């Protein structure tokens, strides 16, 4: 059975998309980021908890503060990307559950009253949303360069607070010529899928 999604869209989102390491100087607008979020906010999370938080790093001063927390190999591309986003998990997401999950507003207290339960759930579900975010960047015709080569504690102290756990930093923009490495191999279906 073939996919319903148009092959051109499949290519844009998956087959032809690459992690970008260099970008043109074309800016990424707030309107583009809003359109990306307005699309990817519909991706599912447990209890519709939507714990992902996005910190856009735009000012030169904030960029300088961020770059010092990046691994050496990530510093140059982060300093020159048109837009950089810090993706984090909000460990206090449960405060929004009565609104976000009206079918069972008590979930806030039944499942997430304790901080360790919130942290574990927030990290998993925000990571899921981060993947949606990357797909959304691609859907906007842009490229993403997600990175975990980061001093996360430094980023948390510099940009967030104790209620947010940084997950990754994502460079965003139009890819420059030669912005990506050649496609690396992928595992075959039979190497990944087991039927029981």
Describe, in plain words, how this protein is organized in 3D.
The longest helix has 25 residues, at 115-139. It contains 9 helices and 4 strands, in the order H-H-E-H-H-E-H-H-H-E-H-E-H. Helix 3 (60-67) runs antiparallel to helix 4 (72-80). With 196 residues, it is of the alpha+beta class. The chain has a 4-stranded antiparallel sheet. It is globular, with a radius of gyration of 18 Å. Helix content is 42%, strand content 15%. The two termini are 21 Å apart.
Q: Uncertain runs with pLDDT below 50, 5 residues or more? A: none
The assigned structural class equals alpha+beta
Radius of gyration: 18 Å
Morphology: globular
Number of strands: 4
How many helices in DSSP terms?
9
For the biggest β-sheet, the strand order reads 1-2-4-3
| Mean pLDDT figure | 96
Please state roughly what percent of the residues sit in beta strands, choosing from under 5%, 5-15%, 15-25%, 25-35%, 35-45% or over 45%.
Answer: 5-15%
The profile of the biggest β sheet is:
4 strands, antiparallel
**Intertermini distance:** 21 Å
Helix residue percentage: 40-55%
Give short descriptive properties of this protein.
alpha+beta, 196 residues, 4 strands, 4-stranded antiparallel sheet, globular
Topology:
Elements: H1 7-15, H2 30-40, E1 52-57, H3 60-67, H4 72-80, E2 83-90, H5 97-100, H6 107-110, H7 115-139, E3 143-147, H8 152-159, E4 164-173, H9 189-192
Antiparallel strand pairs: 1-2, 2-4, 3-4
Helix pairs in contact: 1-7, 2-7, 3-4
């Amino acid at each position: 059975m073939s996919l319903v999604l148009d092959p051109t869209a499949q290519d844009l989102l998956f087959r032809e998309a690459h992690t970008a390491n260099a970008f043109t100087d074309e800016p990424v607008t707030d309107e583009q980021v809003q359109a990306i979020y307005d699309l990817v906010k519909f991706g599912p999370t447990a209890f519709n908890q939507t714990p992902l938080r996005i910190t856009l790093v735009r000012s030169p001063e904030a960029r300088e503060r961020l770059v010092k927390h990046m691994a050496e190999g990530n510093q140059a591309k982060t300093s020159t990307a048109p837009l950089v986003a810090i993706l984090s998990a909000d460990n206090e997401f449960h405060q929004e559950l009565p609104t976000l999950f009206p079918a069972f507003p008590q979930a806030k207290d039944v499942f997430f009253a304790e901080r360790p339960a919130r942290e574990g759930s927030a990290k998993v579900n925000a990571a899921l949303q981060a993947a949606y975010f990357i797909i959304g960047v691609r859907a906007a015709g842009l490229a993403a360069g997600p990175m975990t080569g980061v001093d996360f504690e430094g980023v948390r102290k510099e940009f967030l607070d104790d209620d947010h756990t940084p997950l990754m930093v994502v460079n965003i923009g139009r890819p420059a010529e030669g912005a990506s490495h050649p496609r690396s191999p992928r595992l075959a279906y039979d190497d990944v899928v087991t039927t029981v």
